[in-house]
Amino acid sequence: MSRKASSKLINLDQLFKVVIWLIPLSITAIFIWILSDIVIGGIGQISWAFLTTNPLDAGRDGGIAPILVSTFLILAVCLVASVPISIGTAILLAEFTPNQNWFGRLVRRSLDVLAGVPSIVFGLFGNAFFAQTLGLGFSILSGGLTLACMVLPILIRSTEAGLRAVPQEYRLNSAALGISKTSTLWHLLLPAATPGLLVGLVLGLGRAIAETAALIFTSGYVDRMPTSLLDSGRSLSIHIFDLSMNVSGGDSNAYGSALILILILLIINAIAAWLGSKYNYLYD
Amino acid sequence: MTKSITNNSQSSIQDLQPLIQIQQLSLSYKNKPAFQDVTFSIPQNSITAIVGPSGCGKSSFLTCLNRLSDLIPNCQVSGHIQLGTVNLLSPKINTTALRRRIGMIFQKPNPFPMSIKKNIVFPLKEHGFANAQEREQIVEEVLTDVGLWSEVKNRLEDSAMSLSGGQKQRLCLARALALKPEILLMDEPCSALDPISSGIVEDLIVRLRHKYHYTIIIVTHNLAQAKRIADYAGLFWVEEGCGRLIEFGTATQFFNAPEHELTKAYIQGTKG
Ligand SMILES: Nc1ncnc2c1ncn2[C@@H]1O[C@H](COP(=O)(O)OP(=O)(O)O)[C@@H](O)[C@H]1O
Ligand SMILES: [Mg+2]
Description:
The structure holds 2 protein chains of 2 kinds.
Chain A (H helix, E strand, L loop, with lengths): L2 H40 L5 H5 L2 E2 L4 E2 L2 H32 L5 H14 L3 H15 L6 H25 L3 H9 L4 H29 L3 H4 L19 H10 L5 H29 L5
Antiparallel strand pairs in A: 1-2
Helix pairs in contact in A: 1-11, 3-6, 3-8, 4-6, 5-6, 6-8, 7-8, 8-11, 10-11
Chain B lengths: L1 H12 L4 E12 L2 E12 L3 E5 L6 H8 L9 E9 L2 E2 L7 H7 E4 L10 H11 L5 H14 L3 H4 L12 H13 L5 E5 L7 H18 L2 E5 L3 H7 L2 E8 L2 E9 H6 L4 H8 L4
Parallel strand pairs in B: 3-8, 3-9, 6-7, 7-8
Antiparallel strand pairs in B: 1-2, 1-4, 4-5, 9-10
Helix pairs in contact in B: 4-7, 5-7, 7-8
Bound molecules: adenosine-5'-diphosphate and magnesium ion (MG).
Magnesium ion binds next to helix 2 of chain B.
């Protein structure tokens, strides 16, 4: 190779390196920018009183206690409904339907379509089905169940991937010891698929907690403290949306709520990472 | 030492009843035959070595004997296997109970991703050993049997993944022995191990067989090993794209006076 050509190659290499570094750097920079904007705008609002008192004057004043409670209840309903269904479906897909099976393919294809559906469509569906057809009205239950439908594809696919990652040898070894398929699933495969499920949970909860469109029509707007799951309840993201769009002078409390939202997300991430490391098996 | 044990057992085995009778056994994957028309009998309390080049269907053959073949997609088995009075290939057979009677050791040691102790306790619980004290006792017993007890007794709660390859294989052996099987199927149990671990496992096989009167069917690539431990030996070979049993007989006859040209060539190392 001539001297000239090789030096040109080196230059290209260097250019490539710079570009490769610039992309993640700029992404990190954007993230830090957003985060610092929220921290700077919100940190002054946060106090024990902010977390434990009711909103006043349409949220301009006072705290977010009922909103936090509603948010957690909505997420709890979402988890209680979606996790068992997801694990069950993932087991069906990964353990009982071969790859080529038409039924498995149909379910997987439906899930992929579902994953791409805009959240406003879930909101309208939730309103029509849970709120009206099932008569649950504007309630935490309607909202949580609607979110559950929304996060199902993420949860199912990540749990299924976790199950498929378990080497086939474990199933053969287990069967060769006369261990039933149920026990193999329960004691061997599900623990091994737990990290996958947790990744799905973080992604799913992240999507759920940030959700506004799916909740506006289902869990509603009411910012009073809920007394039952059939009460309407305002989630944090809807509160932020409302303060910044509809309430003039609500910006500082919107920032405070946004900071809390981000803190909750970070905590969910940390818990999942911790649980994941507890269950993380190394295959060889 | 090994040699004299083998010779003793050979002389006593001749008049034993066959435990497993295999007749015209064939297996195919997606209509592509892996082996065909295998017929021979395995006497009780004997070690039978199956040798032959890779891909001639030895592993597939073993999976028929504990019906693990049921779990492999597109795998069809035909023929007849009689285990004592039981028709082993009957669809009505309780495979869970069967697999408790017939233990299996795989080529790649594959302990479960659990603690060392739980690897043994989990199958025991599954088979109805409800008494925790009894389970503890069995754990110690089988780990002692495979020579692991002194090495791991202080770290029974550690992950089995932290063991070395040879230790893992001995744990898998212990796990199978805990269920008190009558028959052990071994698919190249030493071939993934270093020579020293391999020697340890080989000695174990011989010793345990005498202690518990197992009937052992072992697939091996190691002819010297087969000669050392086996009472009976069979050669599998691919003919016309499909595995066949070329020769089967007592180890003495198989290794010293083989009838078939292929066996002769394989033993002398000129083929295979
Ligand atoms: N699960 C399977 N699906 C399809 N073909 C297989 C499978 N397992 C083994 N085979 C094929 O069957 C033949 C025999 O394989 P195997 O029993 O593993 O031989 P050996 O143990 O003697 O090396 C080989 O041609 C192999 O490719
Ligand atoms: Mg093999």
